[in-house]
Amino acid sequence: MTDTITLNDGVKIPAVGFGTFLIPADGSTYKAVREALDAGYRHIDTATAYYNEEEVGNAVRDSGIPREEIFITSKLWVSHFGYERALIGVERSLKKLGMDYMDLYLLHQPYGDVAGAWQALEEAKKAGKIRSIGVSNMTVKIWNVYVPHFATMPSVNQIECNPLAQQKEIRKIMGAGNVKVECWGPLGQGNRTLLENETIRAIGEKYGKNSAQVILRFEVQEDMITLPKSANPERIRSNLDIFDFALAEDEMNQIRALDTGKPSHDPDAPGVGEYLISHYPIND
Ligand code: A2P
What we know:
There is one protein chain. The chain has 12 helices and 10 strands. The protein is an alpha/beta fold. Helix 4 links the parallel strand 6 and strand 7. Helix 1 packs across helix 2 (about 55-65) and helix 3 packs across helix 4 (about 115-125). Adenosine-2'-5'-diphosphate binds near residues 187, 189 and 235.
């Protein structure tokens, strides 16, 4: 079982979730999610544009674990932005998942008619179809364009975040509304520079933990939700085994000092929205 964080709308979310981006819908997602649920994960993160919501839903049902004990996040793709389209997108995700509600639903990427899509999410929340609503990939610049005009403060902003890219500026702004960070790419997407970092390795040695466990523990102690993904059963298990040790403040500071301020993905770069729509088409 994992530690839980309370969001600004009172919804409780397990601090470690299982990420499913890039796990194919050829049975691999089903297998990985069953493995994750067996290992004790109770929070699964999928998205319309991961094309694997259906396998996530099947794995959850077949696990025999009561639906209300598992926290399910999905995301609305940009092709369903705008108020009317977003209402359809919510129903589409529910249908693919085979569920009558989602615990958290995010605007996956901040392009197009973000304001209209957000309004639809607010309504779906009121209608009980979604328990909590949030955004993703919002930089300071993008946040300041949209969020001050939202009637409801997002509960989370899911962004690229790991010890080499700690997102300190946006975290400061989000902190004012008690909006939690969800880290995608929390292990640097398998980046050797991060996983082989000497500071992290040495801290792990002290606790008998591997570098991935130290990194994930750091993120949770920073009050962030973290979404490691792995297709490997041993790593799926070990990535959750971070609740029997705690990093000391000086160790937290050593890891805080590793920040380069440079995430690999820049949502502010020109053409990103167009690129994403053309590379991740949703045709139904
Ligand atoms: P694998 O599926 O073979 O485990 P992120 O969560 O930051 O996106 O990183 C995912 C990448 O990191 C995947 O390539 C995954 O590979 C790898 N990975 C996941 N867990 C670990 C771990 N504990 N140690 C090393 N690599 C890991």
